């Protein structure tokens, strides 16, 4: 079992094969599910990027959503090598297989890119949720409590994404080192030898520590995404209630629950799709055997579905939900304009 934040890859092993057996139904889920998820992710995120490109006012939301869209595309497309190896079933003639050799040669850089994009997508998504929460809270807060300039928010979002990307790449650097050592030393071992038996014990301990950290972060991210989405949904409901009291627009009540449901479902989606991966990796670290290897295609497809549906959950649900992607500076300027106009009318009336 390869270390993976979000996906698991079969690894040839001597002792682990005795508990692994093929289930045609489970394999068919990946054969059908992955191409469907790939098409959904590609089409949806390209449409999302096009919509964000056409959006005139570039703000922090644009930066976060573009980063999430690009990361999700990389996560799905960089899984193609593992998918092709599983589909072609190259367990017999791997020494002569060009596909297998290319997969092994590029596995380190591909895993590093994919896992970095997974980490970056999750953390940027949380930064985006926090940004939305602050924006919605500012719309209901007293005037003058928050002063945010659009350019500063845009620059801050760029810096945040850059820092998160650098930290994610450093955290996943063990994938590059472990595979580089394996490629340098694998010629002295049989082709079916497990990677952990080829690399030095220090490298393997680094790999195990990284996997443990990934499991812990996966659970922490799931809880944080769920909590932040609940907080944002609650704050959005308060903002909508205050607007209805001010504007007396009753027709909004019928659709106001849609964004809240989307936010709650997105948090539940992450927990449901990533928990099986965390459990299987924890079992593998504790026992040293791939008890979940027969269900790896199903677990991978389930995990990838989260990154395939990110755009749908946060961008393309309804037109009403897209109103909450409004730039913070624009919303604050509208609020200040309304308050200034009301103050002016009060002064003129008193005069």
Task: Describe this structure as you would to a colleague.
- The protein is mainly alpha-helical and 351 residues long.
- The chain has a single domain (16-322), classed as Rhodopsin 7-helix transmembrane proteins (Rhopdopsin 7-helix transmembrane proteins).
- The protein is 74% helix and 0% strand.
- It has helices at residues 24-54, 60-77, 80-88, 98-140, 150-171, 173-185, 201-247, 257-287, 296-308, 310-314, 319-322, 328-350.
- Helix 2 (60-77) runs antiparallel to helix 4 and helix 7 runs antiparallel to helix 8.
- The longest helix has 47 residues, at 201-247.
- The protein is elongated and about 70 Å long.
- The termini are far apart.
Proportion of beta-strand residues:
under 5%
Biggest sheet overview: none
Q: Which CATH class applies here? A: Mainly Alpha
Radius of gyration: 24 Å
Q: Quickly count the helices.
A: 12
Average the pLDDT over all residues and give the rounded result: 74
N-C termini distance: 78 Å
Domain G-protein coupled receptors family 1 profile: 44-314
Region (Disordered): 330-351
Subcellular location: Membrane
Keywords: Membrane, Transmembrane, Transmembrane helix
Note the main attributes of this structure.
single chain; 351 residues; mainly alpha; Rhopdopsin 7-helix transmembrane proteins; 12 helices; 74% helix; disordered N terminus; G protein-coupled receptor activity; GPCR_Rhodpsn_7TM; GPCR_Rhodpsn; GPCR-Ligand_Int
